[in-house]
């Protein structure tokens, strides 16, 4: 197992010899126990890397060792506390609130799904904590890096790897 390390205070992500700038949530970093839906905080802790979602036509999947799949029209992620599928992938449209995984910007061209609040999910404790592409601004609670950095890092990640987020 290898660890992707995120130093929130320094805005740096490291993996072995690779080091790069990263952005975190607009609310800064917070203890995972204090994480709440919509607070904009990036949860501190060590989160297993579950897999990758890729936007067709935007990135090449060659060399990726993590489990991955293409994002399809109608793919979403539940962020509604009342939804029995809270913090899980869902199909849109749906009766509950959910984030679309097809966005107008490029942030979700690559989505590395982190195992935050998923075993099992606790409603309201944070959903859709991803590692994705930076759009030059703080995230809603995720960790993000520039496209070039993600494309250098992605083929190095393996199924047993984790992301360790520290204040």
From TrEMBL:
Pfam family for this entry, one: YkuD
Keywords: Cell shape, Cell wall biogenesis/degradation, Peptidoglycan synthesis
Pathway the protein takes part in: Cell wall biogenesis; peptidoglycan biosynthesis
Active site annotation, chain numbering: 132 (proton donor/acceptor), 142 (nucleophile)
Keyword Heme (UniProt): no
Domain (L,D-TPase catalytic): residue spans on this chain: 1-166
Matches recorded under CDD domains: YkuD_like
Protein name per Swiss-Prot or TrEMBL: L,D-transpeptidase family protein
């Amino acid at each position: 197992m290898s660890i992707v390390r995120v130093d929130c205070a320094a805005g740096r992500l490291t993996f072995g010899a690779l080091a790069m700038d990263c952005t975190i949530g607009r609310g800064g970093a917070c203890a995972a126990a204090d994480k709440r839906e919509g607070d904009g905080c990036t949860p501190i802790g060590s989160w297993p890397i579950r897999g990758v979602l890729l936007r067709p036509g935007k990135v090449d999947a060659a060399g990726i060792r993590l489990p991955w799949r293409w994002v399809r029209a109608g793919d979403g992620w539940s962020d509604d506390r009342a939804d029995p599928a809270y913090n899980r992938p869902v199909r849109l449209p749906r009766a509950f609130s959910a984030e679309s995984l097809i966005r107008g910007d490029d942030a979700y061209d690559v989505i590395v799904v982190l195992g935050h609040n998923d075993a099992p999910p606790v409603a309201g404790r944070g959903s859709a904590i991803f590692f994705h592409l930076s759009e030059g601004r703080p995230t809603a609670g995720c960790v993000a890096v520039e496209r070039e950095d993600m494309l250098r890092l992605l083929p190095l990640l393996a199924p047993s790897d984790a992301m360790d987020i520290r204040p």
